[in-house]
Amino acid sequence: MPSNEFTEAHPELIKNLDSLTLQSRVVAAARPPRGEDAGINPAIELNSTFLAPGATGYGRFGNKTWSALESAIEALECGPTLVFSSGIAAISSFFSILPRGAVVTASRNGYSGTMVLLRQAEASGALEVRYVDVSDTDQVLAALNGSTMLWLESPTNPALEVADMPTIIAAAKSLNVGVAVDNTFATPLVQQPLEMGADVVIHSLTKYISGHSDVILGSISTKDSALYQRLAEVRKFHGVIPGPFETWLALRGLRTLGVRMERSQKSAMELATRLSLHPAVDRVRYPGLPTDPHHEMAKSFMRGYGAVISFDHRGGPEAADKACAASQLVAHATSLGGVESLWERRHRWSTESPTIPTNLIRLSVGIEDLEDLWRDINNALNLSLEI
Ligand SMILES: *Cc1c(COP(=O)(O)O)cnc(C)c1O
Question: Mapping DSSP to helix (H, G, I), strand (E, B) and coil, where does residue 246 land?
Fold first, then answer.
């Protein structure tokens, strides 16, 4: 199953994980070989250079801690994996290997940093971008004709639109259009894009996979060995390499992904339901809600609905800011996927897409007690309604 450079160098670290569920793989993957007094965890490899002769040679070319995390992500996404210094480093490395002038179909809403990169690539003539509403399958299928690549985020950040991934990926394949999926929001526990036929899966490991808001890291997984080699070269020669300590922390965080996701998703479902009844809330965007326009689609192929909720504040942007500043347990901060709940009005960032409402608040649901969270959110929203 695993086939990266690491596996060849360290075959003993890879167990046959195929028979395990994903919930067990997050715990069991990338463990060192068992033996008397063997450590239960991989070591942190802190060397910049290695004695000759040898396969690695230099710290920018390879690192055993990277390899351990890569083999763990490979066990979840089912494709050889490379880790990068950040999610955006993984994304920009991927865009950098597309041929000049390539036509990219991409969601009009998506992670704001990706949108910035796409707009820059358009401005410089490096790429031509067709922006689509990913939840409008006909629109996506029409745009695919003549495209080089489809860049898919589903659910989208922060609008939580869901694409018909099985249909769209199959259509792209039949047209010979490459498919790359940013799977940060869903995590491999909820959907595995390579298993659905995508060519590339990208993660901001900063979010759910690390899970503790203490690391910036990214990854790319692909079964295409030529693509893997080209991306490995970009990492090596552009130097977009992760630090060994961050990599180790990400693997440590990954161990609890299953229980964190289970709890966060359960709380998100309940909070979304309660939010939709709150007088300060106009519209809740959460694919788990039966009333959500994306619910049926999400239910048809996802194994969960994630733990990010977006909602539009009835009082407008100022009241939304007031609510975010008034919470005590939920931190007023950007990012998502950590054990601690966070919220923010997305348009406090100038890079947020114009298609996102200015009163939209994105809430990342952590693992705190549900009733404590609701008391805090309810209080903050009530305060934001007072003049
Ligand atoms: C945060 C995020 C990124 C960027 O990752 P970094 O690790 O912050 O560089 C990319 N895609 C999505 C969906 C994200 O949420």
Answer: helix
